[in-house]
Every structure is written in C-alpha cells, then in structure tokens.
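Researcher: Structure prediction, please.
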Amino acid sequence: MEMLNILGITSIYAACLGLVFMLLSFNVIRYRWKFRVGLGGGHKPLDRAVRIHGNFSEYTALILLLLALFEISGASNNLVHIAGASLLIGRCLHAIGLTISSGTSIPRFSGMILTFLSLGITSIGLLISSF
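Model: Predicted structure follows.
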C-alpha cells in the first residue's frame, strides 16, 4: 500500500538531522560517563558538548517546522532542498566549529551563515506565500 508523502523533502533532512542530534547526544553521554556527572557540568569538555547539543536543538527544531510548512505551502522543490541542505550543512559545520574552538572559527561562522540562510528562506518564503 502506497502512502502519500506530502513532506518527502523535509523528511530527508529531518532524518539526517535526527542522526546528527543522536551523535551529539552520545557525545554528551560519553563525557557524563567520563566525568561521572549525572546533572550539571563543571568540566569544560562536558560543558562544551552540552552547549553544542543545546545550540543544535534550539535552531534545528524551529527551522525544521518552518521547512515543513514551507514545503506544504507549495514552495519549489529546489528552494526546499536549498533550505534543508543549508540547515543540515550549517548545523554540522557549527557543531564542528565549536568542537575545535570555543572562539570564532571558519566552520562555526559558516555554519551560522548557512543556518540563517535556511531560516531566512523558509520564514520569508512562508510570509510571501501567505499573501
């Protein structure tokens, strides 16, 4: 039995981002085991891993919702792919950038540019399609 997949493009990016989220979660768990910390932090590697995980989830959840609404609104497949790929690549680059340095870095900066590109495309696209 075939099912209608109205969010076929968003589903691809949601699945990939879910796997990245899982990897970032495992990284936090790894440091919690290493430092024997159940809640809280106090260890720089753990605190950084928690922030990377948190930052990923803060942006990803909202933009995935916007991406789904953008796709449902009838946006072109190419624009949905551009927004989805920008989000996926941007969030990965940002996490890599924060992993290698707590300061500014090219991956971190590039990751935020791509994340904001995705946020802008989906938000502006939805506003335009609403009128």
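Model: The mean pLDDT is 94.
Researcher: Thanks, that helps.
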